[in-house]
Each structure stands twice: as C-alpha cells, then as structure tokens.
Amino acid sequence: MCRSLDRPWQNFLRNIQHITVAVVDETGRPWAVPVGVQKYDHGIIQWFSKTNTVHSKAIAKNPEVMLTAFTTKEAPTGEFGIYARARAKKILSLPGSGRYRAEIYEAWYTDERHKKIEINIKDL
Fold first, then answer.
1. Helix or strand or coil: residue 10?
2. What is the pLDDT of residues 16-45, one digit of tens each?
3. Contact 120, 79 (CB under 8 A)
4. pTM of this prediction?
C-alpha cells in the first residue's frame, strides 16, 4: 500500500479549493477561468457555474477541458502543480446556474523540480 508521500498529488487534490478550467470558446479561441471546487473524488472534480458564462457555454458544445491548479514556493506545502485533461458536463440544472463535473482521463504533476511527471489515472 502506498502512502500519500508516494503519491503527492492525492493530498493536493483532496484539499484543493480552486482549479482553473480552460476551454475553447465559440470563436475558437482559448478561455480559462478559476472555479471554486465543491467536491473532489477519485479523479472527478465538481463545481458550480452560471450557465451563461463562456466556459459553461463551451462545455455544452465540447466537453474537452484542461484543468490546472498550483501552489507557489511560498506556500506551506511548497511548489506544486496539477495539470489534467478531462471531460466535463453539467450534471444538475438550477435557475441560471448548474453543477458541473469533470472526469480526468490524463494528468501530470510538477513540484519544485519543474519536471512534468505523469500520474496513473488509477491512482487518482
């Protein structure tokens, strides 16, 4: 059994509060926005967003997203980053907003060494 030190991204993701969601907008240009993470569980991230935003409209047309989250070297945990490709969708409709879910299918992390290290999806 591996400890979380062997998989440093696990503790990072369990405690994540914000993540940046990047999409391609209706004009074909990139767009990225930070969202507040409501829940993370084994490679699945959930958040609430207004349905009339650029990223929500883009997800409705194309579920492919890029997710990023990071800390700086000044953070108590030190420098760390997560980079993931995921498929997102709205899972709950509310008046003017919705709950969104992104399922990660490819991911990497970096630390103070700035080396991109692939994460086995089964380990999320």
1. helix
2. 899 999 999 999 999 999 999 999 999 999
3. no
4. 0.89
Query: Which of these, 64, 88, 55, 70, lies nearest to 13 by C-alpha position?
Result: 70
* CB distance 103 to 42 below 8 Å: no
Dump pLDDT digits (tens) for 45-95: 999 999 999 999 999 999 999 999 998 778 776 788 999 999 999 999 999
Contact in structure between 18 and 81 (CB atoms under 8 Å): no
Those residues with Cβ within 8 angstroms of residue 82's Cβ, 6 or more apart along the chain or in another chain: 9, 12, 13, 16, 19, 67, 68, 69, 70, 107, 108, 109
Alpha-carbon distance values, 41 to 11, 16, 19, 105, 114 (Å): 11, 11, 14, 14, 26
